[in-house]
Amino acid sequence: MATTTTTVPSAGPVAGSRSFLSRLREGDEIARMITFLFAASVVLVTVLLVVELWQGSVLARHKFGFSFFRTSVWDPIFDQFGALPFIYGTLVTAGVSLVIAVPLGIGAAIFLAELAPARLSDALEFFIDLLAAVPSVIYGLLGVFIVVPLMRDYLQPGLKKTLGFLPLFQGPAYGVGFLTAGIVLAIMVIPYIISVSREVLLSVPRDQREAALSLGSTRWEATWKVVVPFARGGIMGSIFLALARALGETMAVTMVIGNNPIVSASLFSPGYSIAAVIANELTEATSNLHYQSLIELGLVLFILTFVLNGLARLLIVATSQRGAGMGNA
Amino acid sequence: MKRIAGMLLVALAVAGVLWADNALSITGAGATFPYPMYSKWFDEYHKQNANLSINYQSIGSGGGIKQVTEGTVDFGASDGPMNDEQLKAYADKHGSGILHFPTVMGAVVPFYNIPGVTAELNFTPEALAGIYLGKITKWNDPAIAGTNKGISLPANDIVVVHRAEGSGTTFCWTDYLSKVSDEWKTKVGKGGSVNWPVGLGGKGSEGVTGTVKNTPNSIGYVELTYAESNKIPYGNVKNAAGVFVKATLGAVSAAAAGAAKDMPDDFRVSITNAPGKASYPISTFTWLLIPEKFTDTAKRDAIKGFVKWALKDGQGYAESLSYAKLPTEVVAKELKAIDKIQ
Amino acid sequence: MNARLHWRKFLSAFMLTMTGVCALISVSVLFFILGYLVYHGGASISWNFFTKLPAPVGEAGGGMANAIVGSGKLLLLATLFGVPIGFFGAIYLAEFSGGTTAFIVRYAADLLNGVPSIVIGIFAYALAVLPFKHFSTLAGGFALGLMMIPITLRSTEEFLRSVPKALREAAMALGASKWKTITSVIVPAAYRGILTAILLAFARVAGETAPLLFTAFGNRFWSNGWNQPTASLPAMIYTYAIAPYDDWHRQAWAAGLVLLGLILIINIVARAILSRGIAVPRA
Predict the structure, then answer these.
(1) Torsion of CA B298, B303, B305, B307, to 10 degrees
(2) CA nearest to B40 within chain C
(3) Percentage with pLDDT > 70 across chain C
(4) What average pLDDT score do residues B165-183 get?
(5) Contact partners, residue B138, CB within 8 Å, separation at least 6
(6) How far is B40 from chain C (nearest CA, A)?
(7) Is A184 on the interface with C (CB under 8 A)?
(8) Nearest chain A residue (CA) to B192
(9) What CATH number does the domain containing C80 carry?
(10) CA distance B151 to B309
(11) Which of A216, B78, B279, C173 has CA atoms 20 to 30 A from the CA of C139?
(12) Domain tally for chain C?
């Protein structure tokens, strides 16, 4: 919607756009300038943030170059810093969380969009949005006191007994580790998947559904084979959003991941994530290189979430427009 | 409505300004090792000097060194003395030096949570190094069982716990391991923050204690008071004279006896693996890191006053919290050194 | 053919039931969390908790009075910093700007929104702590305010835009200047949505911990004025939860309940306001 500097015939005999002076007098130009300053400050602050991340990591970037992403050693004594364990941990925990949250989330979204009567759907959506509002540290609190003992005493031994032949489920059961962090993250990102997917599913034009049903498909087939594929882009978008959230989570992860920078095939192993190591080590990184390596990690995280968020938005918008465009065939 | 909001805002702003002028607040940060002691001290001192609150945040010795160097806190605290490089970095940044003031002494104990075992285990230096190097992986390994005949140790995997962040406790622990194990010295080295071969990272002494308390078959290293106040069993360690010594305050003082006589002027000294039959081998001083020059005279005088109090009255609180008092020679030397703070 | 049809029908019923199960699981997690917090936190909430300062390590009987006040101060600062920028910036976007500028500003806001809170913490540490050489409530408020900006901006813009064109045109026809239209017609019409946006942004940052670790730092005592480090509820929860003391655990539960209760109430109120619909002056 374009702004309205339309020509308005003023009260006097002079027609055409109002002069700069008259706009100034009536406060419009000042208002425009002031609000412009505020809007510009948003851009300024964002640019400043990126610059700060870039400049703040210059030593580390020059010293390590791309090997930063391949090295596993994080040694403050010998000033050797490699990001691999943290990137690995961040990706693995996010991956585990998606494996759990995506089926649950999409399933719930399908229920809310297709099956539930409108009022129930809205009511449940309300509660799920509340779940999204729970702060990270509270998830951490619950993680430490509920999930970790559950993992250590029941889930991990259970998985070991049944699926222990897989390298994924080997090693001692600490309670903390990649799997635990992934589970806590899954709970945190489900609301995002559900609310966005539900919206996207709701925006699929009715005739798609009706056409499928009229051709004799069951409700499930209509949903799964017609509606969901139509909304595929938006659902992918919601997954990217959830992924971006999971990657950036700090408190809940550092409280349950074990804080050990290693790369391990086992999900039972303690690990580390980018956000967790920054939270733990930033205030005490004595050497300049240590500090700047942490900033570089922050830069990596920033770029990752930036790309994912961008992709997510593109997908979601594209799908909704597609739905709207085809609406009234 | 708008007017009310406006007046409220103005009132708040005024209150904020007025409120700000009231009392003196000093911020310090650093070691978690002496935190129970310091939190008691600062609380007591605040009771006696209501206009002064010393806010101490236990973020780890590494954080203490870094933040006092950055100048974001008024003083630091560490159980690993600043090395020459760090001292130089401080001097370069501020144009003046930083002083170490030992406050108490403590012991770093190997504490553990083994189901069914409440006895005090005997640990040799080789056993400790082996566990932390990841070479000794089970509790019933001969290296441990050999010195603990009569105690049945399970065949469970050892869960190693260490500090996640830069820590003076880690410095003391790795300093000791470097002295008793060449392999540790070359592979890992000593420092506040090392590249741990194995283990879970706990945040602060509190985090390590919490992790050991909640994780069966775990072992960690922490200041004596944390193990004692949480009733977690800790082991005896074989000292340089070949005796298995329990970490008692007497044993810590014995370890410091030699150093007390030859205390260097800057008070930076290591007392790990000290000679003597009664010495506990993993003992350490803990220091306050106080800048030589203060621009704010009120803060300077407040800190000097506190240090004097800590060296005299403060020592009285140490033993009930499982810290050893400073040797009298060291106290005397420090009282003289306080005048260096300008 | 009959068998196949039966299978398909069965599959349909089964899968759709499964989706219902998924929804049930997702929603019940919320109730479980709430229930657990109420159970553990409720038992630990005491007069001490709200009025006392933290006690020395290991001693019982301390409270979180300073953390509650600290969180209040931080959130106040965050609102004072973030809301005006978001609000006026949104007015610019909705009423004054051209296509390219609007695109850039929106893009920047979305970028800022997606930045992980720990990275915001790094930024605030570098900008508001290091140069001033101390941790402070102001730095913490700055960090939190940064996080409030994008939410406020985008939501406010949306609600401003959703005000019907007819209203704008009517105001213009009556000779009102742009600014007058905005202040007397458009903003009042959209005020419900704007208020909701502010409340939601507030609730979002109320629970943030990571940025406060390097800005507000922490304080065992009362924090005077705005230039001292300060305790905050989320940071205390973090510190107490990972420590070994049972008394601290109890306090962490209580704090968790207070914090979550506050956030949920704000969310519910915000949504209630919004559900009453955009206020449109009667014809």
Answers:
(1) -170
(2) C56
(3) 97
(4) 92
(5) B155, B156, B157, B158
(6) 5
(7) no
(8) A77
(9) 1.10.3720.10
(10) 46
(11) B78
(12) 1
Please name the residue that has the structure tokens 């959830």: A242
Domain that holds residue C209: 66-275
* In the block, residue with structure tokens 């979204």: A109
B62 and A284 Cβ atoms separated by less than 8 Å = yes
C26/A190 Cβ within 8 A: yes
**pTM for this predicted structure:** 0.87
pLDDT confidence of residue C282: 41
Domain-embedded: residue C49: no
Separation in Å, CA of C260 to nearest CA in chain B? 24
Q: Does residue C82 belong to any structural domain of this protein?
A: yes
Q: What is the pLDDT of residues B206-259, one digit of tens each?
A: 889 989 998 899 999 999 999 998 999 999 999 999 999 999 999 999 999 888
ipTM: 0.85
Considering the domain boundaries, does residue C181 fall inside one?
yes
C20: in domain:
no
**Using CA atoms, how far apart are residues C252 and C238, in angstroms rounded to an integer?**
8
Structure tokens at C187: 């903003």
pLDDT at position B17, please? 52
Residues 6 or more apart whose Cβ sits within 8 Å of residue B146: none
**For residue C113, which residues of chain A lie inside 8 Å, CB to CB?**
309
Amino acid identity at A7: T
Test B199 with A73 for CB contact under 8 angstroms. Answer: no
Interface check for B86 against chain A (CB to CB < 8 A): the answer is yes
Q: What does the pLDDT read at residue B186?
A: 92
Among chain B residues, the shortest Cα distance to A282 is held by B63
pLDDT, mean of each 10-residue run, chain C (283 residues):
87 91 89 88 86 86 90 94 93 85 89 91 92 92 94 89 87 84 85 87 91 92 90 93 88 92 90 69 41
CA–CA distance, B123 with B134 (Å, rounded to integer): 16
Are C140 and C215 within 8 A, CB to CB?
Answer: yes
C-alpha atoms less than 13 angstroms from C-alpha of C141 in its C-beta half-sphere: 23
For residue A233, CA distances in Å to A97, A209, C16 come to 20, 17, 22
* Secondary structure (3-state) at B55: strand
Contacting subunits of A (3+ beta carbon pairs below 8 A): B, C
DSSP B326: P
For C179, which of A26, A137, A248 is closest by C-beta distance?
Answer: A26
Residue A172 in tokens: 């001692």
* C-alpha R_g of chain C: 24
- Using a CB–CB cutoff of 8 Å, tell me whether B12 touches chain C: yes
The pLDDT score that the predictor gives to residue A51 is 94
Instruction: Say if the Cβ atoms of B200 and A260 lie within 8 Å.
Output: yes
* Cα–Cα nearest to B156, from B141, B144, B168, B139: B139
User: Strand runs (DSSP E) across chain B, as ranges?
Assistant: 24-30, 52-58, 75-78, 98-113, 122-123, 159-163, 200-202, 218-223, 236-238, 244-245, 283-291
Whether C162 has its CB under 8 Å from any CB of chain B: the answer is no
Which residue has 């203490």 as its token pair? B64
Contacts of C133 in chain B (CB under 8 A): 70-72
Contact indicator for B292, B90 with CB cutoff of 8 Å: no
The Cα–Cα gap between C80 and C87 comes to 11
Q: Which DSSP state fits B216?
A: T
Tell me which residue of C62, C68, C87 sits closest to C259, measured CA to CA.
C68
What are the pLDDT digits (tens) for B305-341? 999 999 999 999 999 999 999 999 999 999 999 988 8
Q: How far is CA B25 from CA A258, B303, C66, C220, C224, in A?
A: 36, 11, 14, 11, 8
